[in-house]
Amino acid sequence: MDVASLPGAAQALLERNWREGVYRGRAYGFSVPSPRSYPWQWYWDSCFHAIVRRRIDPSRSRRELETLLAAADPDGFIGHTIFWERPVDLERAVRYNVARRQDLMTRTIQPPLLAWAWRVAVGDPASESGIQAHHDWLRANRDLDGDGLLWLVQPDESGMDASPKFDHVWGTLAQGRPLFPLLVHRNRRLGFDARRVAAAGRPVVCEVLTNVAWSLSEQALGRPSPTPALIARLYDERAGRFFDDVRNAVSPTPGPARPATWDALAPLALPDLPEAIGRRLDEEVLLAPRFWRGVPLPAVALDDPAHSSRERWWGRHRHWRGPSWVNSAWLVSLGLRRLGYAEQADDMSTRLADVVAREGFREYYEARTGTGMAARDFGWSTLICELLDPAGYPILGQTVAQ
């Protein structure tokens, strides 16, 4: 297909991936991330789907987010993956974060974008009691230090899965390595409870991308912004980068010595990020050859020893170990435009759109050649439409400059 046909193709894909019905007495309607590889509802995928779909079919955009709320526990917890239509199969149950195979959803989280996506796609989330309850649960159960930031118990809670930035944290138990099911088993025994995991001496992480999503959503609800706390805890002024805060790491490693991964740029999506920090991220990191010369946006800097775009690694796909993802390019493009780098944002959009048009809506793309990799008909890659048409994009009352 050509670039001009991408919006129509995106609409057709989201419609093909749409599933609706009633399961265990709860009505649902959402687009699966990919029919063959991801047959259920994934939390932050649905947030991205709703953002794209708001221009196409606002009613289904709202319903996709309402379906996340329909799965919520009475206390406000919403899991990483929700198993509408049928329970998780035996093969996945070993490595999925469920307490029992019959669980409706996993007992772990994903980057909490729901309130922000609701603000973008539907309206004011503050009137939704389910979203308020969801945030109350996150603060009560994942804000370990009372400073408004969230902590994770597993790498997949960040949405970055097998990123090399987690290797020093979990070692041989990191995502994608053969012993990862053992980490799932250990955390299952502790109820995936962050405080119990930390008290047992197991690793927990105050992670950059998760807290960017959290700050966006807290601000969307009209609550105090966690961005100042995120900067105070995770920003390294000397390095000009953001780094995770880690406890009980298997091999503690100073931030600047860790792999150069794209999430250091995720704070560009924050509307209240100080301009000086944003410009350093843009000019010293994003626009430097190690990131900019790749297909937007390499998950790991092209010259970093940890970078690899091979299709498989220890029997699993190399999620986030090098290939480019459309959602990360879109998030950082918001900061480019807000800070006046419209020409560079347009260049990013054009280069990535050419790749998507050539390869189709794939899960991710090889960071040098753009070869499509992993799942096909992948829903959130339709975010390319947002990159191509950013005019009037609402960010908590602000508008991205064209």
Topology:
Layout: H1 6-16, E1 18-23, E2 26-31, E3 41-42, H2 43-53, H3 58-71, E4 81-82, H4 90-93, H5 114-121, H6 129-142, H7 167-170, H8 180-189, H9 194-199, E5 204-206, H10 208-220, H11 227-234, E6 235-236, E7 241-242, E8 245-247, H12 275-286, H13 289-292, E9 312-313, E10 316-317, H14 326-338, H15 342-359, E11 364-365, E12 372-373, H16 384-388, E13 394-395, E14 398-399
Antiparallel strand pairs: 1-2, 3-4, 5-8, 6-7, 9-10, 11-12, 13-14
Helix pairs in contact: 2-3, 2-5, 3-5, 5-10, 14-15
Give an account of the 3D structure:
- By secondary structure, the chain is mostly helical.
- The chain is 39% helix and 9% strand.
- It is built from 16 helices and 14 strands.
- Strands 1-2 form a two-stranded antiparallel ribbon.
- A hairpin with a 2-residue loop joins strand 13 and strand 14.
- Helix 3 runs antiparallel to helix 5 and helix 14 runs antiparallel to helix 15.
- The longest helix has 18 residues.
- The protein is globular, with a radius of gyration of 19 Å.
- The two termini are 26 Å apart.
- The C terminus is likely disordered.
Q: Whole-number radius of gyration?
A: 19 Å
Distance between the termini: 26 Å
Helix share, percent? 25-40%
Quaternary structure classification: single chain
Unreliable segments (pLDDT under 50, ≥5 consecutive)?
A: 313-317, 396-402
The portion of residues forming beta strands comes to: 5-15%
> How many alpha or pi helices?
16
Shape: globular
Mean pLDDT: 93
The structural class is mainly alpha
Q: In which order are the strands of the major sheet placed? A: 1-2
| Helix and strand run | HEEEHHEHHHHHHEHHEEEHHEEHHEEHEE
Largest sheet: 2 strands, antiparallel
By DSSP, the count of extended strands is 14
